[in-house]
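[recover] target loaded
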């Protein structure tokens, strides 16, 4: 696609066209609340559009953030939305704009990129690898095994969005945790929440918001759905669960994403029995798992330099393929990570261009290598299901040294 059809988003020029795209694909309704929320969103981060007859028919938007890798922090480019109108399908606009956004992310110092996928397959063509499965749970708050006194929370409103963003940014972090920098990201989520409810505690320094839940209600008895929550440590988590339990006399079930660092089933009384008894109803109790986010490395040297694995290390030559090379060829200075690399994984890890004689070799796509490096699946598993090839001895050596907790973002976007 020629550069003349791609350009940065211009708010005055493009806002009505982008609103129309979002309405066409069913992402927003034709009402003032939804449109106002989208206008807020379009002020966030960086957006490019692809045009037909100088009218925007596809838009790709990303913003900056951070990602926790073990005890290190990486610069994250988070793709918030890629949207194509009905008359611009099958023209390659979405793929081209997303690839260009990756080049922009790299140019602005982002070390990794992530997004939420509409389905598996499309973003694989841009080097993204599928993340870990996330559990979505629905449970009866009366079955929570929480022994903690109840404290009355503060009711949260839309104008608390800065407080929610600060609490999310300062929550307890684990391997894979992300933070999106603009507070307006949270403002848009709150604006789009139908029948909203928010409850929290201002126990932070200077009476700032420390832990909270935010979501939507449904009728008198639910299910209520929790879209966002934050806490710092066990005590705050247990207090939020005690808060949910306090609503059990009215609310029959809650839906939420399972906190990645715990097994929520440990906190429920007779989960299989209640699951059987509620089967088929609107309050059916249970767990559903799916991998809905993807990630890829943008700066291989930076990511490996921040990788620290105890014990004997492993060194190998890597032939890496990257699908954005063909898409971006001649279009941007950065065209992906395809090529030959010498990789060291250990206490002090590194990646450098070239090869070293006498080392074992691996061939992999950036998709598969990103998944391995991030701890989504071990190398030996990816050699079965993904584009990663190496001798069994090398796979076993990498499995031994690259032992990571399962990554979880802890922030849906």
């Amino acid at each position: 696609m020629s550069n003349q059809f791609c350009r940065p988003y211009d708010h005055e020029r493009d806002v009505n066209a982008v609103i129309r795209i979002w309405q066409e694909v069913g992402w927003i309704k034709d009402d003032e609340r939804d449109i106002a929320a989208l206008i807020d969103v379009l002020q966030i981060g960086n957006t490019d559009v692809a045009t037909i007859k100088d009218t925007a028919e596809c838009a790709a938007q990303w913003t900056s953030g951070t990602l926790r890798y073990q005890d290190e922090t990486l610069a994250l480019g988070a793709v918030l939305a890629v949207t194509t109108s009905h008359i611009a399908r099958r023209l390659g606009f979405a793929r081209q704009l997303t690839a260009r956004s990756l080049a922009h992310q790299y140019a602005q110092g982002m070390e990794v990129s992530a997004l939420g996928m509409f389905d598996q397959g499309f973003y694989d063509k841009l080097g993204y690898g599928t993340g870990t499965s996330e559990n979505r749970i629905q449970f009866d708050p009366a079955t929570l095994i929480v022994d903690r006194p109840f404290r009355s929370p503060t009711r949260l409103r839309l104008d608390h969005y800065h407080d929610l963003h600060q609490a999310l940014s300062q929550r307890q972090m684990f391997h894979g945790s992300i933070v999106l920098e603009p507070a307006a990201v949270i403002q848009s989520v709150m604006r789009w929440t139908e029948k909203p409810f928010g409850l929290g505690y201002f126990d932070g320094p200077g009476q700032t918001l420390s832990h909270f839940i935010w979501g939507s209600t449904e009728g008198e008895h639910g299910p209520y759905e929790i879209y966002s929550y934050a806490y710092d440590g066990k005590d705050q988590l247990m207090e939020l669960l005690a808060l949910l339990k306090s609503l059990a006399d009215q609310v029959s079930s809650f839906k939420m994403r399972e906190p990645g660092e715990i097994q929520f089933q440990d906190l429920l009384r007779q989960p299989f029995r209640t699951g059987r008894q509620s089967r088929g109803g609107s309050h059916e109790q249970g767990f559903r798992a799916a991998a809905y986010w993807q990630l890829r490395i943008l700066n291989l040297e930076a990511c490996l330099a921040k990788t620290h694995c105890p014990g004997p290390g492993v060194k190998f030559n890597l032939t890496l393929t990257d699908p954005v090379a063909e898409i971006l060829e001649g279009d941007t200075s950065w065209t992906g990570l395809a090529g030959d690399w010498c990789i060291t994984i250990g206490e002090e890890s590194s990646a450098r261009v070239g090869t070293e004689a006498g080392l074992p070799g691996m061939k992999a796509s950036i998709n598969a290598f990103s998944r391995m490096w991030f701890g989504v699946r071990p190398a030996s598993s990816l050699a079965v299901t993904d584009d990663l090839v190496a001798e069994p001895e090398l796979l076993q050596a990498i499995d031994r040294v690259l032992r990571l907790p399962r990554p979880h973002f802890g922030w849906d976007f």
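[recover] notes: DSSP finds twelve helices and 20 strands in the chain.
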